[in-house]
Amino acid sequence: MSLLNHETNSLQKISPSYDPWDPIMSLRKYGQHKLTSVEMTVTHLCNMRCEHCAVGDMLVMKEAPALPVSEMIKALDQVEHLETISLTGGEPSFLEKTVDEMIVPLLKYARERGIRSQINSNLTLDLSRYEKMLPYLDVMHISFNYLSAKDLHEVGFTNSPRPVSYDIAARMYDKMMENSLKLSEQGMFISAESMINYRTHDKLAGIHRLIGQMGAKRHEVHPMYASNFAASLPVLSLDDMRASIHGLLDARDKDMWMLFGTLPFYACNGGEEDRKLITRLHKEPNVTVRNDPDGRNRVNVNMFTGNVYVTDFADIPAFGNIKNQKLDDIFEEWTTNHPLNQTVNCFCDAAQCCGPNLLVADMYYKDVDFKTRKAFSDIV
Ligand code: SF4
């Protein structure tokens, strides 16, 4: 099925009113969650070892061969309602071979089918690797949590097997900035994500300004997940997180799209402060709050084993494999029968909310049964 607009022969522009990664779109369209998005882990190699890395324990120094890309494309072809794909790592472009033999063919497939694509990258490698994606890629998603090269040096190599000098980190920082500007100038949609954590919560306004200067079209903000390397880092209080978001909303460039995701504030929370923040987020121009795709409309496929997960980073075991099952069947089994999905699979349409992310619920709402809650009517 093609999602191209045949009258103009063009794809609908990704914008605050059209975010095909948000599971609420397909939930409203089909009346139930459908698999519309597939994320693929294309490498476990990376040139960084960030202290907050959500997949840090899975990173390797040498990688086994991946499944043939044709096998992955065959699996994607069988997903009836597919609308988006995401490619993730590690640093997906770490090896040029992965760019040529896996990334570009998958992006081409997406473009030919009329579905949207995203890649997650640290953008610190040779510009030419990213330029190969330009003709086919919809969203270049980068992580940016720094005010200076010093911040990158402090955060980016904490778990590195060997010490990395400040000079190397500074060169990578400059490369990231330069790549982002050059790719933006060539028309790439750069979406820079910052996390809210104990290091960044009072620096976000400055980080936001730098992201604008890098030419990014969108600033994404998510809380840090307490997963893998990040599991041992201090957890920010909900009060500090709220204050940080208000501060960012006060300081932001109102012409830049801001996308908040996996926030731990829900329209069914009783607290006055949560309801004030949610109402503000809904009312601010050019601000969207994306529902979490993981396990709602998306699964993750490990391209080395074929295993299928709810997300690339949670410690939830695989629940299928593309070698012997269809992705739609694996997803159906997860949504209907998996006990974990049943704990957070709620939906309040008027509040534009389809429930919490599993890890965020575990971090902040242990023992809360969201299925028994409903959004308060004053914030819908
Ligand atoms: S969908 Fe779930 S988390 Fe969201 S407001 Fe309703 S009950 Fe709360």
UniProtKB/TrEMBL annotation:
<protein>
    <submittedName>
        <fullName>Radical SAM/CxCxxxxC motif protein YfkAB</fullName>
    </submittedName>
</protein>
<dbReference type="InterPro" id="IPR058240">
    <property type="entry name" value="rSAM_sf"/>
</dbReference>
<keyword id="KW-0408">Iron</keyword>
<keyword id="KW-0411">Iron-sulfur</keyword>
<dbReference type="InterPro" id="IPR014866">
    <property type="entry name" value="YfkB"/>
</dbReference>
<keyword id="KW-0479">Metal-binding</keyword>
<dbReference type="Pfam" id="PF08756">
    <property type="entry name" value="YfkB"/>
</dbReference>
<dbReference type="Pfam" id="PF04055">
    <property type="entry name" value="Radical_SAM"/>
</dbReference>
<dbReference type="InterPro" id="IPR007197">
    <property type="entry name" value="rSAM"/>
</dbReference>
<keyword id="KW-0949">S-adenosyl-L-methionine</keyword>
<feature type="domain" description="Radical SAM core">
    <location>
        <begin position="30"/>
        <end position="259"/>
    </location>
</feature>
<keyword id="KW-0004">4Fe-4S</keyword>
<dbReference type="InterPro" id="IPR031004">
    <property type="entry name" value="rSAM_YfkAB"/>
</dbReference>
<dbReference type="InterPro" id="IPR013785">
    <property type="entry name" value="Aldolase_TIM"/>
</dbReference>
